[in-house]
Amino acid sequence: MKIIKTQAKEIYTKTKLPGCDYVLNQYVSCQHACTYCYAKFICKWKKYGKFGTWVEAKINAPELVKAKIIKGDIFMSSMSDPYQPVEKELELTKKILENLNKDARLSILTKSDLVLRDINLLKQFKNLEVGFTINDFEGKTKDLMEPFAPNYKLRLEALKKLSKIGIKTYVFVSPIIPGLINLKKIIDSTKNYTDHYWFEFMNLRGAGPEFVKMMEKEYPNSLKILKDKKLMDNYIQECVNIIKQSKIKYAGIEQHNK
Ligand code: SF4
Fold it and tell me: Measured between alpha carbons, how far is residue 128 from residues 19, 115, 180 in Å?
C-alpha cells in the first residue's frame, strides 16, 4: 500500500452531492478497495496505480480546518473512508475533529468501527451525525465487493454503540443489487438504532468495466436486471414498497436508472 503524504491548499470543496454543501477529503483513495466504488475515477488524474492500492493523505488537513470556519453542511468524505486503516497511524480524522469548530454541521460516513475510537470527540459536536454504509454482503460476495472493509456485523455493532450513547446516526444502504441484498433484513436489524436512512441502488456506470466483468461471471442474473431499465424499474418499485411499509424516515433514494 502506497501512502502519499501531501500538503493541500484547500480542504473544503463545494459539492452538488445531495444533503451537503461541502465535502472534506483528508484522504483520497481508500484501502477498503470496494470494487464498486465510484471514487476510482480519480485514477484518471492521479497516476499512482489501481484504486485501493494507494492513499493520498493531506497531512495539513487538521491545520486547514482550524484556519477556516464553514457555514453549511460538511460531508466527510466523498473520495475515501475517513476511518480506513491508515487512519490508525496518521490520525488525520481524529485531529480534524479536535480542531473543527464544535458548531460545525458535520456528517461522517464510514464502513469502519474505528470511528468508536473518537467517541469522546464526536460527543462534543452539536450538529453531527455518523452514518454507516450497511449492506449484508457475506463470504465470497463480501470478498468480491468489499474485500478490505470491516464486515457488516462490526458496522452494525458500532452503529448500535453510537446510537445508545445518543449520537445521531444514519444508515446508508448501498449498493442495492438485485438478488444480493436483503433489504427487509437490513432495515429490521438497524431501525432501532438510526435516525434516518439513505438508499442507493447500484451505480454500474460509476463502478466501471472491471466490476461489470466480475458481475457477468459471478452474478449474471443480478447483472441482467441491473442492465434492463424495465426489470430494474420493477425491482426498484419492490424495494420502495419495502421501504414504505417499514415506516422508516429516509432522506433520499438514489436510483441510477436513467
Ligand atoms: S469504503 Fe467507500 S470510499 Fe472506500 S472504497 Fe469503499 S465505497 Fe469507496
Answer: 13, 13, 31
Given a cut of 90, is residue 135 above it in pLDDT? yes
Span from the CA of 161 to the centroid of ligand 1 (angstroms): 22
Domain map of the chain by residue range? 2-254
Using DSSP, state whether 149 is helix, strand or coil: coil
Q: Which residue's CA lies nearest to atom 8 of ligand 1?
A: 37
For residue 172, what pLDDT is reported? 98
Give the whole-number percent of the chain exceeding pLDDT 70: 100
Question: Domain 2-254: which topology?
Answer: TIM Barrel (3.20.20)
Q: Which of 34, 86, 109, 114 to mutate to test the pocket of ligand 1 (most atoms within 8 A of CB)?
A: 34
- pLDDT tens-digit map of 164-193: 999 999 999 999 999 999 999 999 999 999
